[in-house]
Design a protein that fits this description.
Number of helices of chain A: 7
Largest interface: A-B, 46 and 46 residues
Mean pLDDT of chain A: 88
Distance between the termini of chain A: 43 Å
Low-confidence stretches of chain A: none
CATH class of chain A: Alpha Beta
Structural class of chain A: alpha/beta
Oligomer: homodimer
Radius of gyration of chain A: 17 Å
Strand content of chain A: 5-15%
Largest sheet of chain A: 5 strands, parallel
């Protein structure tokens, strides 16, 4: 009975990592509530991918929240005046990729936390990764722990005794590991979209950072790349 | 020269408290960047009020971010199926008002933090109050401190050494104190809207929790209430 399973909110972008996280949450026995966030990014084709992935992996519900981060800009992913980099790992002086979106995972977890409270869920899943994206501050374990502390203090549920847990099961995994784990759990990566500038049908450019990482992940896993390139 | 002043992002709802906070930030020497968040709440008239207040108090910029919290519901302020209470301080069993919006201040501060990073600002102002709204978990000092810790870990700026400060100058103030302070700093409270169910012209119902609090604030301050009631 799915009604007896604990509920978990899973952030689902429609990319490779979050699809695997959804499959992991399901395997761990959670009834999954998938949350996609549209934030004015260029890769809107990911959202259609999220819908396919949520359906295939039997999410109990899938909601879309929209936030116009473009109103403040500041990232190649939200600001039309900043070009998406095609050289592998374009970085700022401090080593942080220019595809970093200011406070993005804080925002995503805030939205997931709000929905978790409404659902009575105490478990949140997020596909952050500290290996391939080591330059993103909000992909580090210390960030995840700080958000758990905040969640307890920020919420009615926390005041009433709930201890929220932020699960980041991929945080130490390589892209190849993630791919192998996802395939074992029934993810169809042909349905996912990782490209920062996919076309409306979800076909990848093959040139951006995200495409480079994804392609080498399949190569390192010794598997054919199911990505549709344009 | 405003160009030499440090920048601060100020969350501005268009209500009485946040208008006072904007005036305080300005008085403290900050160049203010006002951020209003539209989250599917019923009191959209507050946003027009925010525009008037930002203009009168010479904010350097005023942006509007929109988030469809109604997609997950859970509060009398975002869910059309939950009635706005007209008895003073309607509460849930744990003493938290049913106007509590799950994880709202976490979300607001996340959005403010993102804009602060883009601007190069390290100071965020929020009009939370632990006196009149003591039932809201995300209005407590320990929540504010936890968010400061998170902000440092979550951001590129934090990694590069920035220490974000979350200013909550009204956290211990009574409504009457807030009103007196705002008036001293040039706030025109006739321009602000506090009512949870104001009409499109910003006229207040006079019956909801927020109207009760506001009205008694003016009474306790010994001042005429400039609120336009319908």
């Amino acid at each position: 009975m799915s009604g007896n399973k604990p509920k978990a909110v899973v952030l689902l972008s429609g990319g490779l990592d979050s699809a695997t996280v959804l499959a992991i949450a399901r395997e761990q026995g959670y009834q999954t509530y998938a949350l996609s966030v549209s934030y004015g990014q260029r890769h809107v084709a990911e959202l259609a991918a999220a819908r396919r992935v949520a359906k295939r992996l039997h999410a109990a519900d899938h909601r879309l929240m929209e936030v116009n981060l473009a109103a403040v800009g500041g990232s190649a992913l939200t600001d039309p005046s900043i070009a998406v980099p095609e050289s592998a790992n374009a970085q700022t002086a401090s080593g942080i990729p220019i595809t970093y979106v200011p406070a993005r995972n804080t925002l995503f977890l805030s939205l997931a936390l709000g929905w978790a409270e409404v659902l009575g869920a105490k478990d949140l899943f997020i596909g952050v990764n500290a290996v391939d994206y080591s330059g993103y501050p909000d992909c580090r374990p210390e960030f995840i722990r700080a958000f758990e502390t905040l969640a307890r203090l920020a919420t009615k549920a926390g005041v009433e005794g709930a201890r929220f847990r932020i699960h980041a099961p991929l945080i130490e995994a390589s892209k190849a590991d993630i791919i192998l784990r996802g395939i074992a759990l029934g993810v169809d990566f042909g349905e996912t979209v990782s490209c920062y500038q996919a076309d409306v049908e979800g076909r990848a450019c093959g040139r951006c950072d995200s495409c480079h990482l994804r392609r080498s992940g399949f190569a390192n896993a010794g598997l054919p790349d199911p990505t549709r390139y344009r």
